[in-house]
Amino acid sequence: MTASKDQHPATKLAYRRQNGWDRLSEAEKVKVMAFTSDYKKFLNAAKTEREVIGEAIRHLNNIGFRPLDGMVELKAGDRIYAVNRHKALIAAVVGKRQLEYGLNVIGAHADSPRLDLKPLPVFEDGDMVFFKTHYYGGIKKYQWLSVPLALHGIIIKANGDAVQVLIGEKPGEPVFTIPDLLPHLAKDQMDKKMADAVPGENLNILVGGIPLPDSELKRRFKLAILDYMHREYNVIEEDLISAELELVPAWPAVDIGFDRSFVGGYGQDDRVCVYTALRALAETTVPERTALVLLSDKEEIGSNGNTGMESVFFTNTVREITARCVSNYNELTFRRVLVNSFALSADVNAGFDPNYGEVSEKMNTARLGAGVVLTKYTGSKGKYESNDAHAEVVALVRRLFNEAGVIWQTGELGKVDQGGGGTIAHLLAGHGMDVLDCGVALLGMHSPFEVTSKADVYMAYKGYKAFLSR
User: Fold this and answer.
1) CATH number for the 9-112+266-468 domain, one of 3.40.630.10, 3.40.50.12280, 3.40.228.10, 3.40.630.30?
2) Which Gene3D superfamilies does the entry mention (predicted)?
3) Which of 52, 109, 185, 447 has the most CB atoms in a 10 Å sphere around its CB?
4) ω into residue 78 within 30 of 0, thus cis?
5) What is the pLDDT of residues 160-210, one digit of tens each?
């Protein structure tokens, strides 16, 4: 009797992407739901890079990690962390093997696209008061109109005092918004390209509309807001020049779908990888090789600045760790540590969206629910600024994940010549280490409300844990 096509032995030779929910046991599904419930709490508490690092520090302190600068010598099992200007962090668990054999590194980024206040933001027009903003990272500007926004950040006064600002997250608190143009008058606007319909200079935040009572007073609407800020925070307008105030969506992270299979929320690029990497490191006891998680800043604007991946924070911290682990430390020892290291660049990828299927090449695009995504290369226009991982590197991670029961898939960031994007992978690889991009697929990336599959979030954690423990 002739075998059917589905029964032919050759069918076993073909790669087949499988939905993760089909491969999870009922017990694992319960774990997925519990894990992502905690993940949503993290998203709600960490909407800016400073808040991400603050939450990370609180978590690390609670589970026995100690600041690196308080340690003289390090031994296997020691749990340490270092912080850079409240915006970047490195945490590590010292392994059994000598550091010269290399580190297992997971690198994610703490920043997300948002709206920043300009140094002098307050103005009045039309008997209303607005804040002027400058957008941060790659956004579709129109997505930030007519949505509730919360104000997060810090003001540093001339005397050095720090004033924390957080408005719009608690029930009953006011929120802010950018009013959109009504469709009745938007003919000219809607005739424009989407990229040009909302100029960046028009992303002005509505913040007030009650003037000071003196009708003869000039700019009395603006002065009323300045008066409120002085009474509430004891700051003056000049103090806003030395402030970092960010507008982010005011809504919480929530479940999506009748079956609650997805998480919707702001900042999942790249906080989904931040959270899963931290959880994985927390559950790493005494690994063979030292396990290290790096949370960098400024990735969304090129990784520049002294808290970005281009800075010396990573290399200097690895030097400090090496000097505390190795007798007779020298620069050659440090270089060997880096060259022999292996890193996962933990950043998100584009999930296939049937509504916009024309921008994806279906065979090589990640699907939500099919597991954590291995991305051999990123970049654009011929893999420009991509790491492009070696075949041996991809094979090692495949084998590691298969042995650990991690559900994974492969993915690219859209069709060739469609667009593209980058991560910190090429910057890590610049130190000589092997690097592979590995993260979670999103829908609506860089929007105020991104979507992940709970199965993929859990598999990222499971994969990172297997990697750090290798």
Assistant:
1) 3.40.630.10
2) Aminopeptidase i, Domain 2 (2.30.250.10), Zn peptidases (3.40.630.10)
3) 52
4) no
5) 999 999 999 999 999 999 999 999 999 999 999 999 999 999 999 999 999
